[in-house]
């Protein structure tokens, strides 16, 4: 599974950079994708909103890591 690790990203950087990475991985057929968010609730919220705006489905059922979000196309 493809992973995007957001450790080291500032909250205000994530929206634009994540959207570009998601589109890149989608175009390369690299889905599903695990996005490593860490423990920050603010980061999780930003990631969820960005994914929803881009039209990606968050798969909470298969996710056993509270510091990550899994997306399907």
Summary, kept brief:
The chain is an alpha+beta fold and 73 residues long. 42% of the residues lie in helices and 21% in strands.
Characterization of the model:
The chain is α+β, with helices and mostly antiparallel strands and 73 residues long. It has one domain. The protein has a four-stranded mixed beta sheet, with helices on one face. The chain starts with a strand and ends with a strand. The relative contact order is 0.25.
Helix/strand layout:
Blueprint: E1 2-5, H1 11-27, E2 33-36, H2 41-54, E3 57-58, E4 68-72
Parallel strand pairs: 1-2
Antiparallel strand pairs: 2-4, 3-4
Q: Residue-averaged pLDDT, rounded?
A: 92
Radius of gyration: 11 Å
Strand order of the largest sheet: 1-2-4-3
Query: Uncertain regions: pLDDT < 50 for 5+ in a row?
Result: none
Order of helices and strands: EHEHEE
Q: How many strands, what sense, and barrel or not for the largest sheet?
A: 4 strands, mixed
Shape: globular
* Coarse structural class: alpha+beta
Query: So how many helices?
Result: 2
What is the β-strand count? 4
Strand percentage, roughly? Answer: 15-25%
Oligomer: single chain
Q: Estimate percent helicity.
A: 40-55%
Distance between the terminal alpha carbons, to the nearest Å? 13 Å
Our count of domains comes out at 1
